[in-house]
Amino acid sequence: MRIDLHTHSTASDGTDTPAALIRAAAAQGLDVVALTDHDTTRGHAEAAAALPEGLTLVPGAELSCRLTGPEGPMGVHMLAYLFDPDEPELLRQRELVRDDRVPRARAMVDKLRALGVDVTWEQVARIAGDGSVGRPHLAEALVELGVVASVSDAFTEEWLADGGRAYAPKHELDPFEAVRLVKAAGGVTVLAHPRAAKRGHVVPEEAVARLAEAGLDGIEADHAEHGPADRARVRALAAELGLLGTGSSDYHGTRKDIALGAHTTDPEIYGEITRRATGAFPVPGAGGRPRA
Fold this sequence. Notes:
The protein is an alpha/beta fold and 292 residues long.
């Protein structure tokens, strides 16, 4: 089985609609794909409706969090799978994050303009469309203006990375609270790309250990922004802490140069994720069971 547990659609900052993403996943020969848009489940229904026979959808989200305390402050992302999307406390927190995205993006536009970049809010809003506006949309605006060569080049201290010249904070969950809330909603949590240094930070192993003690289920090891040594270390850390080690593409359509299924999760790990979840269930494609 080929299993990709981290993708984004136009419901947040991807360029494929949820239905188009599902078609692309099927064309790539995936058996299982998770839709994990930032802080929203808005694309799930469209994705489920587009499922062909042989492809299974894992409903999820990528939660915006901020680690404080001795290891922080730093932004971290928490992948949440198979939780009850209507659980009131988690829903309220997701709405708080989403509602703060527009004021935060406008503040970053103002900072960019103060740095001499001729970006406008109208340009960023056009790029974001109906999605949850975020830094990738600002990064694409910088690409359009010729300020940087690629979206990833915008995520540096010079521009949009945490603490960067044009960075502005938004409401974010404490990651320990995120683990608690997702668990209470019947879901499973996986810490996303913990060693993606180009984003401006590496999550300290001490923080990962504390999250594991708090109930974190897994950690994303195989990711495009992890080099071979990083992947090996994350897998070793997962073994030390009793965490599930996952792999995934973090697909964003044309916004990032990474293909669906570029990194995948072992079927046994996926099986354990589904066994632990009680808030929701994987959605098989029309007509039946996923390919074996």
